[in-house]
Specification:
There is one protein chain. The protein is mostly helical. The chain has helices at residues 5-20, 27-33, 50-79, 85-102, 104-113, 118-142, 153-174, 183-197. The protein folds into 2 domains: 1-47, Homeodomain-like (Arc Repressor Mutant, subunit A); 59-197, Tetracycline Repressor, domain 2 (Orthogonal Bundle). The protein is built from 8 helices and no strands. It starts with a helix and ends in an 8-residue tail after the last helix.
């Protein structure tokens, strides 16, 4: 699918912000990367400022995340009816890892630049991070084995979701795998820990 000029500006600006930093990236560089004449003002036909481009990128990623979370939960529910608990947990873990990896550019921008924009930090927190943790709560509560379990799902989602986020963030910030654990190792350990955190599942009637 061909991207619109606006989409190219958002995508290329986020890539440049991730590579160079927000302050070090000029409007002319964004224009050049987007296929526009650098310095000719093409960006301003779509955005009022470089900040507005950054805000648009973050808000659009947040909106997309909310849709993706709902779609992923629906897909997991549809495909996992015949899978055992450990297989279902593995799917959840891998879906989380894939989502965090998808947001790698935004992650780098977040840690490097967003402290100067608290309003955008709030968008990331409420639109990208919290929906992922909420999705874990929803997923567990929907599993037949634990439907009647009285557990602190919010706390459990913080532990399990935090591990998934940390695994990818460690790679992004340190440039290596945490503990040198490959993804399959991490997923297997995550599943074992998840099962161990929970009481024995009640028989499904």
């Amino acid at each position: 699918m061909t991207r619109s000029t606006r989409e190219r500006i958002i995508d290329e600006s986020l890539r440049l912000f991730a590579e160079r930093g927000y302050s070090a990236t000029s409007v002319a560089e964004i224009e050049a990367a987007s296929g526009l004449s650098p310095g000719a003002g093409g960006l301003y036909r779509h955005f009022k400022s470089k900040y507005e481009v950054l805000a648009a990128a973050i808000n659009e990623h947040a909106a997309r995340t909310r849709i993706q979370v709902a779609e992923t939960l629906a897909e997991l529910s549809a495909m996992e009816a015949s899978l055992d608990l450990e297989e279902r947990l593995s799917h959840v873990c891998r879906a989380g890892l894939a989502k965090v990896r998808e947001e790698s550019e935004l992650t780098r921008v977040f840690f490097r630049d967003l402290s100067q924009f608290p309003e955008l930090v709030a968008v990331v927190r409420q639109g990208l991070l919290q929906p992922m943790f909420d999705a874990i709560v929803t997923w567990f509560q929907e599993q037949p084995e634990y439907r009647d379990a009285k557990l602190d799902w919010t706390g459990i989602s913080a532990v399990l979701g935090g591990a998934v986020v940390h695994y990818r963030l460690f790679q992004e910030t340190v440039g290596d795998l945490p503990g040198h654990a490959e993804k399959d190792q991490f997923v297997a350990a995550w599943v074992r820990l998840a099962v161990g955190l929970l009481p024995s599942p009640a028989p499904v009637s």
